[in-house]
Write a structure and sequence with these properties.
globular, 10 strands
Length: 168
């Protein structure tokens, strides 16, 4: 019997997938929080994180810088990895299945003006409008489309902040 995994899309649909059909993907995401707000992109019918896939020949830091610039127009200085996980996903029923190693970064500097001039043709299939600063108190009012819950990521960010505060 061949080994299978369950892939899930952003809408919660599940697909049993043979392991040999999986494509390996490294996902790089920025947790950008300032003034009690998180920067999120408009994706699908809700919001998603800023980030995407590591390209061949890139370091994870270079990928983060590129993804943030493409999706927000902003320049970022990568901080530390505050959360990591592996997820199995498909964009939709007909898409290729992926085994995705996902890395979530903080940042130390952020500058520039928000724009979507760098959005790629592929990203235009699910990303629209300019990224939005969402108040952390309003997160329960939005639809978040990502394989890791926003609560999990905010908790990882808060734990990172507590740890660095204790170290200083």
């Amino acid at each position: 019997m061949k080994k299978t995994v369950i892939c899930q899309d952003v809408f919660g649909n599940k697909y049993e997938t043979p392991v040999e059909d999986l494509h390996i993907r490294v996902g790089i995401y920025a947790i950008i929080i300032q003034d009690h707000k998180i920067l999120l992109s408009h994706q699908w019918d809700g919001y998603g994180l800023i980030g995407g896939r590591l390209e061949k020949g890139e370091t994870v830091e270079e990928a983060l810088i590129r993804e943030v610039k493409e999706e927000t127009g902003l320049d970022i200085c990568p901080g530390e990895i505050i959360y990591q996980t592996t997820k199995f996903f498909k964009r939709n029923q007909n898409a290729e299945p992926h085994q995705s190693v996902q890395l979530y970064f903080t940042h130390s500097k952020l500058s520039g003006n928000i724009s979507t001039n760098g959005i790629t043709q592929e990203e235009k299939q699910y990303t629209y409008d300019i990224p939005e600063w969402v108040d952390l108190n309003d997160l329960n009012k939005i639809t978040f489309r990502h394989s890791v819950s926003l609560d999990t990521l905010i908790n990882a960010y808060q734990n990172y902040c507590l740890k660095t505060k204790k170290e200083n």
